[in-house]
C-alpha cells in the first residue's frame, strides 16, 4: 500500500486493507493511485474526472457506492463490501433468475451451502493458512466466498470452468477464456 508503506502478498489482501483502513483510492491506473479524504470525494472524482467519462459508471443498488464498471460492483459484492447483503443472498437471487441453469450449477443444494467451519487461531485462518493484521480483517475473510464451493459455471459450451465468485466468472468471460 503506497499510503502506509505496507506490503501485501496478493491483490485481495490489499483490497481488504484499503477497505478497512478507509483509504479512498481511485483504482484506475491512469490516476496513479490518487487518494481522497472521503467516499464522497472519490465518488465525485469518478463522476467528474475526464479520465473516467468513457466508462459506464455502475452503482451498487443496495448501498449506493459508485464503481467504474459492472465488474467493480461484482467484486464489491463478492468481497462483502456491501454490509447490507451476503454472498449467499446474491447467489440465491441469481439462481432464481437463472431458470435455464446457464450460470449456476443446478445440482447444488443451496440449503446445504453454508460457511465451512473455518476455525481461526489468533488472526490466522486455519483452513487456508492466511494471516491477517487484525481480527476485523480475519472476520471479513471468514465471511467472504474464499472457502465457498465453486457453484458458478462458465456458460460457454465445453469450457467447464467453475468459480466461487461472480467477479471471477465475469473476469473469465471478459478475458475470452
TrEMBL record:
Keywords: Metal-binding, Repeat, Zinc, Zinc-finger. One of its GO terms (molecular function) is zinc ion binding. It comes from the Eukaryota. Residues 123-147 form the C2H2-type domain. Gene3D superfamilies: Classic Zinc Finger (3.30.160.60). It holds the Pfam family zf-met. PROSITE patterns: ZINC_FINGER_C2H2_1, ZINC_FINGER_C2H2_2. InterPro entries: Znf_C2H2_sf, Znf_C2H2_type. SMART domains: ZnF_C2H2. SUPFAM superfamilies: beta-beta-alpha zinc fingers. One of its GO terms (cellular component) is nucleus. PANTHER family: C2H2 FINGER DOMAIN TRANSCRIPTION FACTOR (EUROFUNG), ZINC FINGER PROTEIN 142. This is C2H2-type domain-containing protein. It comes from Armillaria borealis. The lineage of its organism: Eukaryota, Fungi, Dikarya, Basidiomycota, Agaricomycotina.
Amino acid at each position: 500500500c503506497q499510503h502506509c508503506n505496507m506490503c501485501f502478498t496478493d491483490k485481495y489482501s490489499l483490497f481488504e486493507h484499503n477497505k478497512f483502513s478507509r483509504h479512498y483510492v481511485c483504482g484506475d491506473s491512469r490516476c496513479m493511485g490518487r487518494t481522497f479524504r472521503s467516499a464522497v470525494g472519490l465518488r465525485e472524482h469518478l463522476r467528474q474526472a475526464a479520465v473516467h467519462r468513457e466508462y459506464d459508471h455502475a452503482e451498487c443498488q443496495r448501498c449506493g457506492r459508485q464503481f467504474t464498471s459492472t465488474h467493480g460492483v461484482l467484486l464489491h459484492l463478492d468481497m462483502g463490501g456491501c454490509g447490507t447483503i451476503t454472498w449467499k443472498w446474491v447467489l440465491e437471487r441469481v439462481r432464481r433468475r437463472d431458470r435455464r441453469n446457464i450460470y449456476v450449477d443446478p445440482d447444488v443444494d443451496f440449503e446445504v451451502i453454508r460457511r465451512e467451519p473455518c476455525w481461526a487461531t489468533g488472526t490466522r485462518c486455519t483452513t487456508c493458512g492466511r494471516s491477517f493484521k487484525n481480527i476485523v480483517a480475519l472476520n471479513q475473510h471468514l465471511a467472504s466466498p474464499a472457502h465457498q464451493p465453486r457453484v458458478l459455471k462458465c456458460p460457454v459450451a465445453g469450457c467447464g470452468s467453475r468459480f466461487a465468485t461472480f467477479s471471477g466468472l465475469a473476469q473469465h468471460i471478459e478475458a475470452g477464456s
